[in-house]
Design a protein that fits this description.
heterotetramer; A: about 325 residues; alpha/beta; Rossmann fold; 7-stranded mixed sheet; 5-stranded mixed sheet; about 20% strand; B: about 325 residues; 6-stranded parallel sheet; two-stranded antiparallel ribbon; 8 strands; globular; binds thiamine diphosphate; binds magnesium ion
Chain lengths: ~325, ~325, ~325, ~325
């Protein structure tokens, strides 16, 4: 494995994580709608069928529940499937397989089998895809013991978290964000790591910003804006929603004494609420009440580009909310 | 069979069929305009055009009464226009403007228009079929003689909920007509790669539904088949499934160059362009003169261009307006 | 309508809420698996088909996604359907209809229609139904604007919250708990009320216990135990998860300065986390860190009766956790 | 057709068929014992018995090789026992004890046993079918000649995922055999109330799968049909669907008195009790003497009673044991 870093887009990092996994382990297979000849609707699997053949990279009919079930069958009989769900809005179409089968299968059998299935779900707004094609949904399924849930906010995380997910002996739901595919950054082809680790992307002393997916990039931009306002923000890419890295997050909060979470989901049931609740339950002393930047609770994601832009948290909005809790004036 | 009075359409008149020609042209020009608007950045996101399949929209909606129900898909511009949606309402929706049929919050995949019985436009594969069954059950319970028409693609016949809808329709004898537009591809993948049968009408039979294969390029054939199925449903004789063999001339969506086509395939189907077929037939039959055809083309093109301009002049919706669409009750606004 | 109270089981209250709704509004219909002739698997619709006829109370094939879709079609064309989902574990089988259609339908159409559908989901453990038939799931869908989500912890709430749900012009997901069907209590046949109201079942000054479903009954028993230990607990039945009655809850917390939430779900993504986070974000001063009593995060619901009993919070466990935060010794 | 060597079973011997008789009796006695255990409070929750349908379990598993795969349902006691699961492992599971095949965390609806190729036991309707397709694809990719057998009920043919599994099996030519046990009821509701077709084999055809109707009360007929379908699958000739006409003699689950039956229906089916049918045939053919039959009955009954007692003596699992079943990786334990 090449440990040197190379510049790569988030999209390419996804593809390379799959390619390296397919290369390393001959039982790894990739299935989903249009993943083979078409290389994926978002072009995340271009070239893989040519390289690994049709037995290992194959197109499915449109039947999400059915083909996630097929992946489960493959997994418990010796394969290691990666399944692409084209839009995370289609996860509910595979609802039974995702909620009742994958997470529970090993448990119900009394530990007789492993279930090494990775479901890649492509989520997120900003693409003007409208109400039924823009969800992220990383917390919808996070209340399910038996499942691991991961996300990636940078090209490096796209590679390493996905690689780690695929290597798990347990089912993992991995969220990508379609608004990140074009983002470039350095990527080291790391070996699979531990699950449940958050990553401090920017150390800082004044406030802890925890973010996921596209919001990671916006939080980083917010941190740059905040620097101009004299606020030194620590930015953490959440990465694993289940298990969640409370240690890294709360250690940071203890240091900065300010906490703000940023996600592209509504607040009720969000991972941000769980982080804030955990800080409260551990009695961590803060210098100001924590805050959660989320989607509005009284709106769905609209098609209208004007409105979509208005409701997805921007770097500037994040910076303003941080300023409000750390008690300095934002610099616009 | 007790067909409700005044409901059965007769052989379409020359006037009707000239109207069909106008409508099929309007759809074709609309779709072509959408491509332009995309280039100009006035339509964003994605959009699924229906060039090549317009005969189905035109022929099937012509067989309906005004108060019948329809559920359509993300590839629904043609159905909405055929049903009478003003092009500025459709364009407006694609541009995210208040003039849009859903005030710009829906977008290209959601051309819903309750005033025309178009009760839903679905971006999730197969989702509209059971909704149409529900609407048909409404009509059945009221005994008001309405029927529901539900459209889907060939790829949609592989998702479970398609079969669920068919079975429920049959068991409950719902006045619904399912139209499967078999254009041979689901996104970039050819039918035979994902689908166990070639004639999808077979799947109606397995759910106890009378099923037929129809030439989807021929407006007259579509009209005749749908008229018959609708009369059947209205007469309390139960649901039908019509598999329309067709083809889309463009890629699946905006970004698709359609490289997956076999050599000569597109050309073969272009010979059966539904617009040309109808125009030629109407001319051959003397229903349409060369001059009339020319006049119609020019007029319809202008209507489409004007409608696009009107839509572009409409403002985007406000957040407050959008908020009011989420819940009907006061409490949560 | 009879405003006198009568003694009734939770099961009968559910049936009566449906019967009165069917009686009041001829467009109301009930559908689901085995709801007609069999009167429901949990006997919640006994006698309704005989009373209202087969057009209004009818059995569906086994196809959850399909028949929730049918309910949607009925709703937007003039009917007011109640749909029974036999076990809330089958909600994911109707995933697309529940997540992408019902909540979004009115919005996507630009407000052209109302969607008066009530989906009744029968949830909860303690019945030894095993891993795939014991979920409650009231927060799984609470992150969906467009949907209202309700629960009931008493016979009175079973009647009045369900009645209110059915009267809504919007889709409501209503959770029942199979472990409560036999519980009896006074029921007033109230008219539909406002949505989003929590109910203070027992006023108290020392601690606020917010609970849902079966945990409401256990919290009430815990309050009785706590009384013996000299702790005066306020017990709130959450009832509406979306919209949530933060006012009632947080007013209580301001008074008692102690907060504990109790639910039959894991903590990550729970409504309890959202309540605790909200209290923290509003900077409410507490005398001790809040606590959340939940299912264990590292277990699924086992069949084994011994284990099932071990993981579902008991009244005594709730009382002990309360004692730990209010700082008195529990009385066993 | 290239049937893998040594895989095709021949006409069953007298010894085999005496074995079938022992097995069918064991299942019958097991189910009767479960009812007793329920009354005694040793089995809690719910349970779905299969009296009347035992010929299907016995005949179909007899046609498999040891390393073939199976997915079964909540009504799976018969299949598990027929596949060779020791009765104490099955009883133990129903009682929630460590001796249970899933160490007591699964319960009556989850009799999984990977050591016997029984890779899943599903309490959600239809869920096991696509899992079987996946297992079959494993075998296909490895080329190891295994097949997968997937069971479901008549009611399950109405849920979408049934059709999804069939279509995928056909498209991918998966070595899988679907067995639909049509016992005429889904819970308390008769087939015709919820199902558009009477012969469910029709639904295989609509998904391009060769399909047959089989007498599910006759072990020999079941064996012969499954053997043929399995040979077909093993020979890379693709999937099959077998609709087995059958009947359950008890209610759907513990609490069901089965009042929905039409008059005389149960009696008519009891005349075709699979246990009696097999016993009579074996006696008629001289394969089994009266004494042998009696000896077998007594012996099997004792084995069942002993197994129940053994299971009852086993302790319940600990929370720590259960915790270790959730994740395979160390990190989350
Ligand atoms: C449940 C679900 N899965 C996948 C998709 C993505 N998708 C959109 S269109 C499409 C192809 C549909 O093909 P077909 O039914 O033949 O209709 P056509 O587009 O050809 O009109 C797919 C897979 C979706 N919208 N919904
Ligand atoms: C998705 C889902 N919906 C409903 C149920 C509840 N349920 C359990 S068994 C059953 C009837 C199944 O009938 P059938 O398929 O004919 O099998 P049988 O019980 O007759 O063997 C139902 C509705 C379920 N387990 N899963
Ligand atoms: Mg198509
Ligand atoms: Mg059955």
């Amino acid at each position: 494995m090449n440990s040197a870093s190379s510049e790569m887009s988030y999209r390419d990092a996804i593809r390379e994580a799959m390619a390296d996994s397919l290369e390393d382990d001959a039982t790894t297979v990739l299935l989903g709608e249009d993943v083979a000849d078409a290389g994926g609707v978002f072009k995340t699997s271009v070239g893989l069928v040519e390289r690994f053949g049709r037995d290992r990279v194959f197109d499915t009919p449109i039947c999400e529940n059915g083909f996630v079930g097929v992946a489960l069958g493959l997994a418990v009989t010796g394969y290691r499937p990666i399944v692409e769900i084209m839009f995370s809005d289609f996860l509910p179409s595979a609802g039974d397989a995702i909620v009742n089968e994958l997470p529970k299968f090993r448990f119900m059998s009394g530990g007789q089998c492993n279930v090494p299935v990775t479901v890649r779900a492509i989520g997120g707004a900003t693409g003007r895809f409208g109400t039924q094609h823009s969800a992220t949904g990383e917390t919808w399924y996070s209340g399910l013991p038996g499942l691991k849930v991961a996300t990636a906010g940078t090209p490096q995380a796209a590679y390493s978290v996905l690689r780690t997910a695929i290597a798990q002996p347990d089912p993992v739901l991995f969220f990508e964000h379609k608004g990140l595919y074009g983002v470039k950054g350095p990527v080291v082809r790391s070996a699979p790591m531990d699950v449940g680790t958050a990553e401090v992307l920017r150390p800082g002393n004044d406030v802890t910003i925890v973010a996921s997916l596209l919001m990671v990039q916006r939080a980083l931009r917010a941190a740059a804006e905040l620097e101009l306002a004299g606020v030194d923000a620590e930015v953490i890419d959440l990465q694993w929603v289940r298990p969640m890295d409370m240690t890294t997050i709360l250690d940071s909060v203890r240091k900065t004494r300010h906490l703000i979470t940023v996600e592209e989901q509504v607040q009720l049931g969000s991972w941000g609420s769980s982080v804030i609740a955990q800080a409260a339950m551990e009695g961590i002393a803060l210098d100001a009440p924590p805050d959660a930047v989320t989607l509005p609770d009284d709106l769905l994601i609209p098609y209208s580009p004007t409105l979509e832009d208005a409701i997805i948290p921007s770097a500037t909005q994040i910076a303003e909310r941080v300023c409000a809790i750390v008690g300095v004036a934002a610099r616009g | 069979m007790s067909v409700k009075e005044g409901r059965v359409h007769v052989t379409p008149s020359a006037v009707d069929r000239r109207g069909w020609f106008e409508r099929i042209l309007a759809i074709r020009f609309f779709e072509e305009k959408v491509q332009e608007l995309f280039m100009d950045g006035l339509v964003e996101g994605t959009t699924h055009l229906c060039q090549g399949q317009e005969a189905i929209s035109v022929g099937s909606t012509a067989a309906l009464s005004d108060d019948d129900y329809m559920t359509i898909t993300y590839r629904g511009h043609g159905h909405a226009l055929a049903r009478g949606m003003p092009p500025e309402a459709a364009f407006g929706e694609l541009m995210g403007r208040t003039i849009g049929c859903c005030h710009g919050v829906g977008g290209s995949m959601h051309l819903t228009d309750f005033s025309r019985g178009l009760i839903g436009s679905f971006a999730i594969i197969g989702a509209g079929l059971s909704v149409a069954v529900g609407a048909a059950l409404s009509a059945q319970r009221r005994g008001d003689g309405r029927v529901a028409l539900a459209y889907c693609g060939d790829g949609a016949t592989n998702i479970g909920t398609f079969h669920e809808a068919l079975n429920m329709a049959a068991v409950w004898h719902a006045p619904v007509v399912f139209i499967v537009e078999n254009n041979l591809y689901a996104e970039y993948t050819p039918l035979q790669v994902t689908t166990a049968v070639t004639d999808l009408a077979q799947r109606g039979v397995a759910n106890g539904i009378r099923s037929r294969i129809v030439d989807g390029q021929d407006v007259d054939a579509v009209y005749e088949a749908v008229l018959e199925a609708v009369a059947h449903a209205r007469g309390d004789e139960g649901p039908s499934l019509l598999e329309m063999k067709t083809y889309r001339f463009r890629g699946h969506s905006r970004t698709d160059p359609a490289k997956y086509r076999s050599a000569g395939e597109l050309e073969k189907w272009l010979e059966r362009d539904p617009v040309t077929l109808l125009e030629r037939r109407l001319r051959d039959e003397g229903v349409l003169s060369d001059d009339e055809a020319h006049e119609i083309r020019v007029r319809v093109q202008k209507e489409i261009d004007d409608a696009a301009a009107t839509a572009a002049a409409s403002p985007p919706p406000t957040l407050d307006a959008a908020r009011a669409f989420v819940y009907a009750s006061r409490e949560l606004r």
